[in-house]
Design a protein that fits this description.
Blueprint lengths: L8 H27 L1 E14 L5 E10 L5 E5 L16 E7 L2 E7 L5 H27 L2
């Protein structure tokens, strides 16, 4: 067998990383759905972050009071390139947070479970497809 099969490991590695990221996000969302607590929050500002390519992402910072009276203020893990009027500074939103770790939260209507699902599906397809190709190549030697 030639060394060309080693190039098959690239989509396998990408698939495994996508799958891990997607499953982590879906599990996190599931835990919040089951054990999370809803709270009324306010968008107090945006944290602006740039990626390596120079794209700008706006992450809303939500402030709310937890059940135990603790003031919480955290930035969403999801950022967007454009802002919608409904999530402007001062807007009232609903957050669902983990009472044991309030930094784990989701803003209703902002955080995207669909992105986690997309990563899970793409990771599954890349991983399964690459493993199938590798097995066929090994069995037909």
């Amino acid at each position: 067998m030639e060394r060309a099969w080693l190039f098959s490991l690239i989509p396998l590695a990408i698939g495994v990383v996508f799958l891990a990221f997607g499953v982590y996000g879906l599990r996190r969302a599931g835990v919040l759905r089951r054990t999370g607590v809803d709270a009324e929050a306010r968008i107090v500002r945006y944290e602006v972050r740039r990626n390596d390519e120079g794209a700008t992402f706006h992450h809303p910072v939500a402030a709310w009071t937890a059940q135990d009276g603790t003031a919480c203020e955290y930035a969403s893990r999801y950022g967007r390139g454009t802002l919608r009027d409904t999530f402007g500074v001062g807007a009232r939103v609903t957050v669902r947070y983990d009472p044991r770790a309030p930094h784990r939260f989701a803003i209703e209507g902002w955080d995207m479970q669909g992105l986690d699902l997309l990563f899970t599906v793409l990771g599954s397809v890349l991983t399964t497809g690459t493993l199938t190709v590798l097995l066929v190549r090994l069995l037909t030697l």
